Inverse folding.
């Protein structure tokens, strides 16, 4: 399965899990040219097909758009690919449970082993620190670079009032991390309510995080997501 | 696509998102006569087809009902269209996360950029201030006018014990705002729980709101919603 | 549409809304003999067809079971029909948001106009007051009668550790009330969180409740639910 | 219906209820050899078919894998079957509402009669007490045996940062308990919020628990789940 089809599977899986709705996008670094990345034209992820996937250079110029509109926030992707040669895939999303953390500065911590990567650190980013009075969208390379710096070496960055951006060494990891970031946020919110002022919450410790992130690739989940996405694609084609 | 089909798409999209159930309604000002508006006969939004859409004058008399029953609360629509020439579409809904705000007087604030319009102000309205002992329904022009005054120049008004009414310069904006009003309420509730008594919640500031509402039309979402609603309509027709 | 089909629609609608799962049951007083009621044999509501509907006398003996198993808790229905000649339909359910109220003694109050009937009073019942050491099921006429007394003249009664029983003057009212009882509980829980210790929650007042319950029959909703349930039945028949 | 098909029904039912996602697994002790158990190869539960079910000895060696990959955490199953001759079925899951309890040490208590088995005691287990610095997975017999000891004679054990493992005298009981463990956790969390510092929560008492668990087999639910799972299997086969 090629990268384009992988991105179709990623987009539809993220929509199916409510991690993105009509907004948000998944990208992958080109496997033939590390100075390029692949991402859909401006279309809702749930509708993406292979024909919608365009190639962009790292300044986020589409190479082959042929007049098709592109995402305003493509700079998120290009600027991170520039700074992070290890990153091969990126998901930008608006998942609902994460925003309240981004807006209160409560740190996400790994409460669930499927979300162990959170233990590598998930910094917050407030676009106001880069520029005041924006519409909160990462509309240019300056803002993208600022966000990429806040991400640093981490697997994800929270964006105040907006959502998060999640990276991985491959597509399935970026997708799996996006889904389990949201689930961890929901569990942590519930744990905070349960714990009240008296009880500590036991999170994964550093050694546990390290032991988990070394191999966690969401393989079994990816197999399921792919199978379901391909079945939906076949159904659409049959209409 | 004509206004009638747009209203069918709007009704089914709102039901799909749980913003309305069997109740609530979407209307649009006529594009040929600004003294008229279009809205379904008395039927659950999920069942609306183009044939169900009637025309009303601004006193909310149906022009072409031919004996078909109409919504009791049509005065919400007529009275707002009278007072707000800028408004071209209205959604009245009972979305679940919003009612607790309406009943406690906690102000909704824009915590999520897709809901930036909340920063333009979402006043509350208590029907008791207009009339005591009602069943909470806006059953006549007097109550509709009173609600329209509470709405004022704002994009939405909360209705105590009832829901909200959301307006826009076009249908997709009224629909998108209705969906993201509910999502913002859920996120804000979670943020309040997270913040406790100690932490501030960072909402969008005035300049950010202004920068966002100037263009936010929910275009990409509308394209998705339309496609899904039309597919469902085709499926129903094929039965 | 006959009563049997109405009960099929009721059962499937309640399951669709998550108000009952494999458990819970809906009944209706016979329209030919007020000393009889109709209810399914022992089967999950989501699977009920007209052929599953049996007739019971008010002591909850099935008249025509022909060896088919019946619900252990049928006495809930028979004993209420005995005491309440005005009641024509009953739903017993385990809806999730209601149980926490039943177990803490926090009174449900009408926060939403679709749930105005709550303002008529929803008492709580603890089976321990009737008998200690039960499995919480209403397995005999003694327990059923005790519950019916706790219900009194009200539209619903909460059952500690178990769920609720909801009554109405017709099936659609018993179904609608069951659905909106759960929704009101969820909204009230959220309002309590929002209000904290400082803010009052504004519920519907007595006059508002009276004005609403006088006519609320969930007609538009019932039309939708019927249409959807019949479509599912047709689909099953076509398999 | 044979055990293999029962496990297919169990796997798909657990996925349908959100109790497991791509992870988690259900097993059954062989009905011909109590020193063996049946469980799927390494595949997402939602995809399991009868062909995927393998046989394992109680040291968790697959007998007939023919090169197919097996679950890393199969030792959970083998070690419990060794220690608990009464146990005929086991579900390991990651259900979301349960983790916050596992991480805060708040004891799950039976708030709902469908979840009465919780009153038999649901101990917590922290893998750190067995070994530090793991990835939280039960990857060997040592960890499995340690977990089995924490489970003791109880119906379920919570696993910190991970989920839970639930046992039963038959498959439907292990499945039903897994589903109602999650539901009970959600209800208990809501009850804790409602009760605040002032009100007690009334849980089932010991006698009530004993009266309930003596017979609760989730029979009516199992009939429903089986019917739905078989319908989905037939649909897949028809593609």
């Amino acid at each position: 399965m090629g990268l384009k089809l992988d991105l179709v599977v990623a987009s539809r899986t993220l929509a199916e899990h409510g991690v993105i709705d009509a907004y948000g996008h998944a990208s992958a670094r080109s496997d033939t040219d590390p100075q390029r990345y692949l991402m859909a034209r401006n279309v809702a992820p749930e509708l993406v097909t292979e024909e919608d996937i365009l190639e962009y250079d790292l300044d986020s110029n589409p190479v082959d758009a042929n007049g098709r509109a592109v995402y305003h926030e493509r700079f998120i992707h290009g600027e991170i690919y520039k700074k992070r040669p290890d990153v091969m895939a990126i998901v930008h999303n608006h998942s609902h449970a994460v925003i309240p953390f981004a807006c209160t500065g409560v740190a996400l911590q790994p409460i669930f082993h499927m979300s162990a990567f959170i233990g590598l650190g998930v910094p917050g980013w407030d676009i106001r620190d880069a520029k005041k009075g924006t519409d909160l969208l990462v509309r240019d390379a300056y803002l993208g670079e600022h966000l990429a710096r806040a991400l640093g070496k981490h697997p994800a960055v929270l964006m105040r009032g907006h959502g998060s951006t999640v990276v991985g060494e491959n597509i399935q990891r970026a997708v799996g991390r996006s889904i389990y970031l949201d689930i961890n946020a929901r569990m942590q919110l519930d744990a905070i309510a349960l714990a009240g002022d008296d009880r500590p919450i036991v999170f994964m410790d550093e050694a546990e995080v390290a032991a988990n992130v070394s191999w966690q690739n969401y393989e079994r989940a990816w197999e399921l997501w792919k199978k379901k996405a391909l079945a939906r694609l076949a159904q659409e084609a049959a209409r």
In short: The interface with chain B takes residues 21-23, 42-44, 46-47, 94, 96-97, 99-101, 103-106, 126, 128, 132-137, 160-162, 189, 192-193, 239 of chain A (CB under 8 Å).
